[in-house]
Amino acid sequence: MTSPEFTLPLLPVPEDIHGVLSIDAPKAPLVPLVFDSPHSGLDLPADFHPAVDADAVRVSADTHVDELFSAAPDYGAPLLRALFPRSFLDVNRSLSDMDVSMVDGDWPYPTRSSNTAKRGMGLIWRKAWDDTAMYDRPLTIAQARDRILTYWLPYHSALRRLLDASYGQFRTVYHVNCHSMTNIGHTMSSDGKGASRPDICIGDLYGRSAGNEFTALLCEILRGEGFVVEMNKPFRGAELTEAYANPAIGRHSVQFEINRRMYMDETTREKTADFPAFKAAMTRLSEKLAAYAKDKAS
Asked: Of the chain's two ends, which shows fewer C-beta atoms within 10 Å, N or C?
């Protein structure tokens, strides 16, 4: 965005902003590795007034994903978490992905043709899930702008601060942007309703956001754990993968998508009996990635 109101702040961000984000700081010496979970938030903001119930809001959340990677700080990697629902405000969207049909009046900031917004999954979601409308009335421009200033900007500032701190110290940084995906494609997804999905998808924007060595290591570790892994299918990465990556200068970022059937019941969102074993595999992954990042920085 070109408006001064939306200039990305680079001021220090607290490790916890109530209702917005939290940062689990490294418990071991820092390595150039950062994890973030932008869609695992379940707290409904007080100024959020959807036309659907809380369960419908949370159906799109990456429930438990932050917990799957909670051991990352033990190996020197910070973990950033969003605390609010992705459908309230999606930090993995560009500010130009605003669905202007949702606001009352002329949206005064730049937008672009956005396929995610057209499917109802833009910066602020138009749909709760499938064809169910999230709201029964338009938002005001002030309401939408306040969400950006209160949630999007602090999250992006926090992530950029973490990445820049590692890069400034080590001249390289590896970013794992953690997500979950439904077992089967649905009406709002880019791969379409009924599409089958792998255990894990690694998105690197077809090589634009991360180097081949890093993505090859990820695939090797995960396949060694027995998982079916695909690259960029069905997800290639989005705003958080793209915004701060530049593999040519040592800034690597991947979108890490986990099939929900690996660890949770998609209907109840409760953990299944497979959760402990899967979390243990993600802990081993975190340890190996931390060792790799430390080696590359030495």
From this structure: C
List alpha helices for the chain, DSSP H: 54-58, 65-68, 115-118, 141-147, 153-170, 212-224, 239-242, 275-297
CATH code where residue 21 lies = 3.40.630.40
Tokens 């709002």 map to which residue?
A: 188
Q: Which residues pair with 175 in a beta bridge?
A: 34, 253
* Token couple for 198: 């792998």
The tens place of each residue's pLDDT in the chain, 298 residues long, gives 334 345 544 445 566 788 999 999 999 999 999 999 999 999 999 999 999 999 999 999 999 999 999 999 999 999 999 999 999 999 999 999 999 999 999 999 899 999 999 999 999 999 998 889 999 999 999 999 999 999 999 999 999 999 999 999 999 999 999 999 999 866 666 766 777 899 999 999 999 999 999 999 999 999 999 999 999 999 999 999 999 999 999 999 999 999 999 999 999 999 999 999 999 999 999 999 999 999 999 7
Residues forming a β-bridge with 37 = 81
Identify whether the C-beta of residue 86 lies closer than 8 Å to the C-beta of residue 60: yes
> CA 248, CA 234: separation in Å to the nearest integer?
25
Q: Are 198 and 228 in contact (CB under 8 A)?
A: yes
Q: Cis bond leading into 4, ω under 30°?
A: no
The count of structural domains within the chain is 1
Expressed as residue numbers, the domain containing 205 is 4-297
Instruction: Output phi, psi for 214, to 5 deg.
Output: -65, -45
In which element (H, E) is residue 37 found? Answer: strand 33-37
CB 73 within 8 A of CB 27: yes
Distance CA 174, CA 167 (A): 9
